[in-house]
Design brief:
GO biological process, one term: double-strand break repair via homologous recombination
Keywords: Coiled coil
Structural class: mainly alpha
Shape: flat
Number of helices: 7
Distance between the termini: 154 Å
InterPro entries: P-loop_NTPase
Helix content: 55-70%
Strand order of the largest sheet: 1-2-3
Number of strands: 5
Largest sheet: 3 strands, antiparallel
GO cellular component, one term: Smc5-Smc6 complex
Family: Belongs to the SMC family. SMC5 subfamily.
Strand content: 5-15%
Order of helices and strands: HHHHEEEHEHEH
Length: 403
């Protein structure tokens, strides 16, 4: 029984082993098929990946080429920019050098002009002296005595004649030397040699002073020109507004310069008040009192944006104006003073036209003086609206409206 049991157990193990071997064989076959299938898919994927990599590499290469070209263009542009900056710096330095040279040449030209004027003056003086000497010489040795001898000279060549004259001068000098004159000549020559370095130093100092003065002149003229230009814009605008109102007029402001004398600098005001008239400098000889008052008034209005102040007082600016000019001037004053940013205005005047256009921000104050004026407690609106200013007759008391 034990042997049968052992045999049975051995058969079971044998069957189990056979099953396991069969399963192992089946699994190995499946594994081989799976391995073969995996290798086949891997090759396909690898080929696809290689194609994508090649495509990416091709695109990358193309982008790199484009980038390289752009970098080359950028480098070339930078080189051109640097070269242009160098050219600009060179041109600027050359321009400054030329400007300095031009200033020096201008200064030298002025000095040469002065020297030329001095030479002309000296020549004129020497000519007068020569004429006087000739008169005195003719008194001592009349020309008629030696005229025939001069005409007998056969020399016509200029150089030969000059040499002959020089020889005669030398002979005269040897025969009639003047020790006092020679001593004076030597003293003056020593003085000239002694003062030479000082003169050169003064010339350099004057040159430096001229350059400094020119630099200060430029620093002054540039902002001043801008200020005058700003005034001119407002001045022309005020005149144009009056022109648009039907009054023929125009005006302009100009910065006046004088290269020779800075004391002659100024602001020139040119105006015209007729259609067929040219612009002329504002003058009491040409323009009437009303025209000058109107011009002055508009010029003051043009200045108000440049000079900040809390209030302004205008005293009798309308004196001398006719009714038309006064209305136009008052209209410009209203527009200039009734804005949010404009300062307060006090207009003091002994008279005002009737029918002027006022603004709601305007306050009118009447100052009474004298024993014959209407008392303050009797003043009323009816009196103001119906009676002209400074009229002597009064309104009956039964028609007055108390204020």
């Amino acid at each position: 029984r034990d042997a049968d049991k052992t045999l049975t157990e051995a058969n079971k193990q044998k069957n189990t082993r056979s099953k396991l071997q069969s399963m192992l064989k089946t699994r190995k076959a499946k594994l081989a098929r799976a391995e073969k299938e995996r290798n086949k898919n891997f090759d396909k994927e690898a080929e696809i990946i290689r194609e994508k990599i090649a495509e990416k590499n091709e695109k990358t290469t193309l982008h790199v080429k484009v980038l390289v070209d752009r970098v080359k263009d950028k480098v070339s542009a930078c080189k051109q920019h640097i070269l242009k900056n160098l050219e600009l710096s060179t041109a600027s330095a050359l321009l400054r050098a030329r400007q300095n040279q031009m200033k020096e040449e201008s200064y030298r030209t002025e000095k040469l002009k002065e020297e030329l004027n001095e030479i002309h003056e000296s020549l004129s003086k020497k000519t007068k002296e020569a004429k006087q000497a000739k008169k005195e010489a003719e008194k001592i040795a009349p020309m008629e005595t030696y005229k025939l001898q001069f005409e007998a000279i056969a020399i016509t060549d200029h150089d030969v004649l000059c040499n002959a004259i020089e020889m005669l001068k030398n002979r005269i000098s040897e025969c009639h030397s003047n020790p006092a004159l020679i001593e004076e000549f030597n003293q003056r020559r020593e003085l000239i040699e002694k003062l030479g370095p000082e003169v050169e130093a003064l010339k350099e100092e004057v040159g430096d002073s001229v350059v400094t003065l020119e630099r200060k002149k430029i620093a002054f003229e540039s902002p001043m020109q801008k200020v005058v230009d700003d005034i001119n814009v407002r001045f022309e605008k005020h005149f144009q507004s009056i022109h648009d109102s039907g009054y023929e007029c125009a005006g302009t402001v100009k910065f006046l310069k004088d290269d020779e004398d800075p004391r002659k600098y100024g602001v020139g005001v040119r105006v015209k008040f007729r259609a067929n008239q040219k612009m002329q400098q504002l003058s009491a000889d040409i323009h009437s009192g009303g025209e000058r008052s109107l011009t002055t008034f508009l010029y003051l209005l043009s200045l108000q944006d440049l000079a900040q102040s809390p209030f302004r007082v205008v005293d009798e600016i309308n004196q001398g104006m006719d009714a038309k000019k006064e209305r136009l001037a008052f209209g410009r004053l209203i527009k200039a003073s009734c804005t949010k940013k404009s300062p307060q205005y006090f207009l003091i005047t002994p008279k005002l036209l009737r029918g002027l256009k006022y603004d709601e921000n305007i306050t009118i104050n009447f100052v009474f003086n004298g024993p014959h004026c209407v008392p303050q407690e009797k003043w009323n609106k009816f009196h103001l609206s119906k009676r002209p200013f400074f009229e002597k007759h009064s309104i009956p008391s039964n028609k007055r409206i108390k204020v």
